[in-house]
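Hi P.,

Sorry for the delay on this. The queue was packed all week, but I finally got your sequence through. Input first:
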Amino acid sequence: MNVKEVSFPSADGTLQIYGDLSLPEQQEQSSDLLPAIVIVNGSGPIDRNGDIPQMKLKLNTSNQFAKHMAEERPKDRAIAVLSYDKRGVGKSKKKGDKNLFYRTGMVDIVLDAVEAVRYVFAHPRIDKSKIVLMGHSEGAIIMPIICREVKKAGLTDIFGCIFYAGFGETLEKALELQRETILADVQMEKGVKGFILRSAVTEDKLVKQYESLMKKVHAEGDPDFISMQCGL
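Then the structure:
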């Protein structure tokens, strides 16, 4: 597998977005065009590998997925993969601006994804008619909006979408399930760590967080981007 660091301008042109383009090794001397998958990560400061550097949390989901697509599949079915550092994460930063990620809005995330598609679209080894989005969590939720913006940008329509852990229910139901899962996991934790977690993470605290969030979602005034576009 040939992994090359690449970059493309952010949607507003204020910085470069950096990422990795993974290409199958055997395609180096071939004129065959490759289908490509662009990964749109979930919420939080996630980098091109699917990790959260600020929390020192290494999951390596994106780079493992890219390795499988570009290297471990049959030679005639290999797929290129582009994954990138979100704005304000990894190398996608402005010098001296430590709060860039926290000022990044949902519109920025959507339009940066469009620029990622534009980069892949222009690559000489990629089949423009076979570009697929894979969105995880928040990335899955906003994928329909990204597809719409890709079309508005005059690019070829997205060939397909992979929805990975997006919402299949209302926001209320999803948060209720999340709350129940967290409480169950905390109860199963043993030892001192379990004792501390059960003291800090209680049902009452989680319910209050949920009520506070829903109050903001349903507040009067201008709705936020996700509420407007996804009906949440």
